[in-house]
Amino acid sequence: MLQPGEGPVDGDHYLPADPELVHWGLLPNARSEPVLTIRSGETVTLDTISHEGILGDQGRDPAAFFGAAGIPGTALLADAVALAASPREHDASTRGPHVVTGPVAVRGARPGDVLEAEVLSLRRRAPYGAISNRHGRGALPAEYPEPPATVHSVVATVGDDGRGRLPVGDGRHLSFRLRPFLGIMGVAPATEADVHSVPPGRHGGNLDVRHLLAGSRLFLPVQVPDALFYAGDPHFSQGDGEVALTAFEAPLRATLRVTLHSGPDARALAARLRAPYAETADEVIVLGLDADLDEAVRYAVRDALALLDHRHGIPGPVGLAYLSAAADFQISQVVDGVKGVHGRLAKADLTAPRAETPANGR
Question: Fewest CB atoms within 10 A around its CB: which of 49, 85, 117, 354?
Fold first, then answer.
């Protein structure tokens, strides 16, 4: 267990998930006050709380919710228990479910700059979490959860072998690989209106891209002074699509290095793209976001073409041929209203140098 203020902290700064300071259901916006200010290049460790087990349709009582699955009260996180027991209002009809830690101000960030969030480490704060299908949502909204239920939650655990364990209900368990990541990373959008935590956008937010593991880097276009970075929606694992509405939602202690890019090249690329983009050791990942899944695919392909042109000078027709032959366009999630598609381009394919024009012009 990684209780607030206990255990290893890998970053230069530590930001707990203070129940009085976290955002619940709404993301930070242009008028939000930062809870921490750091410089570009510094690292910050954030505690994150999973919303599963503290929501109103689960009784807003994590002791009872997880206790029914055999999780003792001594294994509950103090910050999650305190948030559930607090007088803070959470109206599920007007807000999302997510608990978000932040925002963190990055000194000197200006609109048009690019904020790089490099995920350095993701430590499990507890050995359990939950997977839920609720309110007739998810990929099969007319079929699950089965009537008369309005929410169906399954408590999953981490086995001694470090794999996820999902009870079948007859004494068996399904076992699966864990791949922890943050479903939400983002910057404040340039609005003073409430920002619902569910739909992702150019600000990032609830992207739910399972490839944003430790070692990945997410590039976010800054929209307000000081960027106001935040993170939340921790996952122990998720499949592409996240078809049941949630995946293995469970709390993480995340350490990130936040770096500001304010040069003309970074700003120019960000201005050409409709969404954030990411990199892993081996891939560049572009995103497409839209309520229409077909349109989300189109946006992802267009951003991939823009990136290929901007970074590598590859003309559109050639770029489209390459994407069709070698890139993977996969569904990130279909359950957040704004659906997500991510396109994965292998870096090894893009290392060829530009051809030089001979001195005689031929």
Answer: 354
Six token digits for residue 147: 């009537």
Q: CA-to-CA distance for 288 and 198, rounded, in angstroms?
A: 16
145 prior amide bond cis, ω within 30? yes
Return mean pLDDT, the chain. Answer: 96
Q: Are 322 and 313 in contact (CB under 8 A)?
A: no
Tokens at residue 270, please?
Answer: 């960000």
pLDDT digits (tens, 9 = 90+) for 325-339: 999 999 999 999 999
Give the 3-state secondary structure of residue 297: helix
Domain with CATH 3.10.28.20 in the chain: 273-350
Higher pLDDT, 354 or 202: 202
Assigned token pair, 77? 């996180």
Which string of b and e fits 297-310 if b means at least 16 CB within 10 Å?
A: bebbbbbbbbbbbe
**Model confidence at 359: pLDDT above 60:** no
CATH homologous superfamily of 273-350 equals Acetamidase/Formamidase-like domains (3.10.28.20)
Contact residues for 60 (Cβ-Cβ < 8 A; gap 6+):
54, 84
Tens of pLDDT along 60-72?
999 999 999 999 9
Torsion over CA of 298, 301, 307 and 309, rounded to 10 degrees?
Answer: -100
